[in-house]
Design goal:
By secondary structure, the protein is α/β, with parallel strands linked by helices. It is built from 11 helices and 7 strands.
């Protein structure tokens, strides 16, 4: 792996790329996951690589939804396992959620490796290796789920999701929470709570919220959930992106280098 100098201006971004690449070589992330990560990284530029106020609001509502659910489940794919394995384990413990591995590019070997990888961070009883139920209306490998987990869940957190399964889960009557940097995606538009944020920021933020909500009354948590308007939140995210683009116009006075032939 490439040794990245810690004083490099893009250290964090490059370090994440290296981790994704390492996990591809370890059989945790698929090669297609590299493309998905790059696409998300491009959109992350547009939001300034920071948690927007709208995202923080969504993260708080998401945690409240998980805490007030009877059977919450966190679905994990290769990229999520590569980027925030410890965070997923900690969040699951704090909100009382099960963890289930669910993959589009599924092989039994990959599921086993992700399960083992999460367990190395303290996860227990990770589901997904032996699916015994099927999501109706879904023909991809993502349809294979655990009856104890995603199939019977009332709330599912789906970081880095694809739209087909999001739609199918909603069709089953589940509350779906998505973490998706693209506010225009079908997943973001269909989910009940869409977090437009990088998963490496969203999960730590949700952990903080879960800790701060530890002694919050259920009725107050439910207020966070029912007061949340996903459509308005996505519109706010888009406006924040537009504002950031407007403020970041390339102007002559901005200090960009100019080519000189003298």
């Amino acid at each position: 792996m490439t040794e990245i100098p810690k004083d490099h201006p893009r250290y964090e971004s490059l370090a994440l790329r290296e981790e994704i690449t390492r996990c591809v070589e370890a059989g945790i992330t698929s090669r297609q996951g590299l493309i998905a990560h790059g696409r998300g990284e491009a959109i992350d530029y547009l939001i300034g690589e920071k948690t927007l106020p709208s995202a923080l609001e969504a993260e708080e509502a998401a945690v409240a939804a998980l805490l007030t659910s009877k059977n919450p489940v966190i679905s994990v794919n290769g990229n999520t396992a590569a980027l925030v394995p410890g965070g997923i384990v900690e969040l699951a413990e704090l909100v009382g959620a099960k963890i289930e591995v669910n993959l589009f590019h599924r092989t039994e070997e990959r599921v086993a490796r992700i399960k083992e990888y999460l367990e190395s961070f303290g996860a227990k009883d990770v589901l997904g290796l032996n699916p015994d139920a099927t999501i109706p209306g879904l023909s991809s490998e993502r349809a294979k789920v655990s009856k104890e987990g995603i199939f019977s869940a009332d709330t599912v957190l789906v970081p880095l999701e694809d739209g087909d399964r999001c739609e199918a889960l909603i069709g089953m009557g589940k509350t779906v929470i998505a973490i998706d940097l693209n506010p225009f995606s079908r997943t973001s538009r269909m989910a009940h709570i869409s977090i437009v944020d990088n998963v490496v920021r969203a999960i730590p933020n949700m952990i903080k919220s879960a800790k701060s909500f530890r002694y919050t009354r259920v009725i107050d948590l439910l207020y966070f959930v029912y007061a949340f308007d996903n459509r308005k939140n996505l519109e706010a995210a888009v406006e924040e992106i537009k504002r950031g683009l407007d403020e970041g116009r390339l102007e002559e006075s901005s200090g960009y280098s100019k080519l000189s032939i003298w």
